[in-house]
Amino acid sequence: MSETETKRSLHFLEQIIEEDLAKNGYTHIHTRFPPEPNGYLHIGHAKSICLNFGLAKKYGGKCNLRFDDTNPLTEETEYVQSIEDDIKWLGFDWEDREYFTSDYFDRLFDWAVILIEKGLAYVCDMSAEEVGATRGTPTVPGQESPGRKRTKEENLDLFMRMKNGEFPDGAKTLRARIDMASPNMHLRDPALYRIRKVPHHRTGDKWCIYPMYDWAHGQSDAIEQITHSICTLEFEVHRPLYDWFVTHLELNPRPKQIEFARLNLNYTVMSKRKLLRLVKEKYVEGWDDPRMPTIRGLRRRGYTPESIREFCDRVGVARREHVIDVALLEFSIREHLNKIAPRVMAVLNPLKVVITNYPEDQVEEVDAVNNPEDPGMGSRKLPFTKELYIERDDFMEDPPKKYFRLSPGTEVRLRYAYFITCQEAIKNDKGEIIELRCTYDPASKGGNSPDGRKVKGTIHWVSAKDHAKCEVRLYDRLFKDENPNVQEDFIQCLNPESVQVLKDAVLERSLADAQPGARFQFERLGYFCVDTKHSQPGRPVFNRTVTLKDTWGKMAGKE
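The structure assignment produced for this chain is given below.
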């Protein structure tokens, strides 16, 4: 491959890094993943995690984990621990480089003092509403705060008094003195500190003023000697402010901020505010609800770290926003589970079948393949008995044309076992079918007939005499609208059929001892995972991870 072809195969961030290493004096790269501990990570964060840790690994660099803990109102140790756990689960390691912005509060305060001494920051008495009203528009300059006229000495005194807790919440802010006429609204004297008399999850009551994200971001990068500060695209307009602080504080080495398009999925919301509302108003059972796009929710639903990393790689890295079809995420887990998940038989909506010509007390073992994609996974024995269960949907009394499952007088193949023919459907007083009477062909064991006759339909089954009863939860997409974010109230877009709980499912006996987190393919039904929250010893609950094919008709899945 030529040098030009190699360059074309790189995404734009890799091109920037390679050019920096080759021409711009960089000897190494150092990235960081900087989550705010105010919620659980979601699939969008997974893309950023894979990107930052992945670039560091590719170029022999390092990646830090830094918690942006500058808002004590919303941040909790619970979130810190969940973020650490999710990153490790995804397969990444920050080694000994775990940091918190709160580690730098003293240094950030000292740097704020330097800006005041340089005449580049001042204490403002205006409320948040007044600041907003006087900021202007992109084409109309804002109005200067009266605090801009204060002397350096006055500002230093007021800032120290802010730090010492002399003023109530919201009474004053420290603002940068930049340009109230700048076309970039973020340069119109942005706030650096606000008063917030709330205990911090790490620093306790030491501070009652807290730095704003824009103030803490670049300086924290500089302290950690980050070379490439990779942010999502909404921070592009913040970059001039990032550079302004670094320049006027004369920080070296100087970090470089680069933006990429964040991950957007259809049929999904990823705003932490919206996700928090779903949790608090109990539309879901928690951050780890299997319908949530959180990493914790995807884990509980049965997604693998490999599938999420593969999905992030397939999505790629772009400069501009676009929406990814969630079917690609479903395809990624379907493809991985197809390779690794043992096949088992489960009947979710049982209908009893009695094989009238099968010996009454006979129990026969048939061989079943564990995974046709991996011969090394071997086979297992299944008990075949006179009474079986099949899916209720696999029988129709009056079937349409091209219906190849069971119906009166038709013959189907029982997976791994025999041909059976339905002779009679037994009904209750309400006219509901409660049992099928069938006969079997003893010569068709293994699913083949010695006379060569063809049977088009193959259905799965479970022994009525030897099975496990389990609860199964059929999860679907949480939202019925492709773009719930554009609706006036995204809650109105919730899918009322996003979960269906089946209490009477019957499965192979061995699945009674399936361990939480274990993943299986239920033949003909989909991929399922043992729930890690509600399962009990001997009584597993199975969550559907994904169907065998894309039932939404957007993309053909790979079985």
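Interim note for the steering committee: Residues 1-7, 553-559 have pLDDT under 50 and may be disordered. The first helix runs from residue 3 to 8.
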